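Deviation from plan, reported transparently: adenosine-5'-diphosphate complex.
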Amino acid sequence: MVPDIFIPFRPEDRQDRPGYFFILSGPSGVGKNTLLSIVLQGMSGVYYMPSATTRSMRAGESQLNPYVFMSTNEFEQMIEHGQFLEWKKIHTNDYYGTHLPSIQFAIEKGFDIITDMDVLGCEDAVVAFSDHICTIFITPPSMDELSQRLHGRDSDVKSIQTRLDRVELEMKHQDQYDFVLVNDDLEESARRLRKIIEEVRSSKEFKGKRQMMR
Ligand code: ADP
Ligand code: 5GP
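Because the crystal trials were delayed, the predicted structure below was used instead.
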């Protein structure tokens, strides 16, 4: 079971406003976690919030990097105990979910957090925490490049195909996001992502797309 608040927030990172909740979406394999690891290395005070999942670890992954890996039974117990802001079954039959108490704590206490979510989970999060959310959609430079990235990361053809099958659904939602960023050149894309996050963090109140449409 995931402990109540498992992110080691430091008091000096507390902001003089509610915390911002940054959400990155985009097709699997577009580079969300790669971008995040580069951006977070050079930025203090923004915490990566690992989602929970029941999918198996890939080579190079470990507990909390990038997920809290758990069994289906553990995940279902957390659902029963109302521990998720949202959860979805994505790809084959794997659960992915966002830990609600950590998000509530961070926003309330003034800590900025960032996570990765599919487009449907992001819709749920926006409904729950609208005034504190900044959404960023990452797109690939082309579908060929996305396919190459998926093949470069994984050798399981079936797993790659299930991810490619979801691309259309993910891409259809990009207009709902506050920012859309093409992940072409990695360093340049990381620089642009860092700039977006820094600009939003420096504002007392972020007026994203959703707030302006109200
Ligand atoms: P996601 O988190 O969106 O599922 P990953 O961060 O795991 O995607 O990236 C998928 C693969 O693409 C990884 O092998 C990564 O090294 C590669 N990758 C990510 N961004 C780029 C980029 N800008 N150019 C080339 N390869 C990239
Ligand atoms: P994978 O890492 O297995 O290739 O792909 C995971 C997919 O699930 C991505 O589309 C990612 O954005 C999404 N995802 C990761 N964490 C969460 C979460 O907590 N909730 C939801 N709804 N989607 C998530």
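The longest strand covers residues 84-90. We consider this an acceptable substitute for the interim report.
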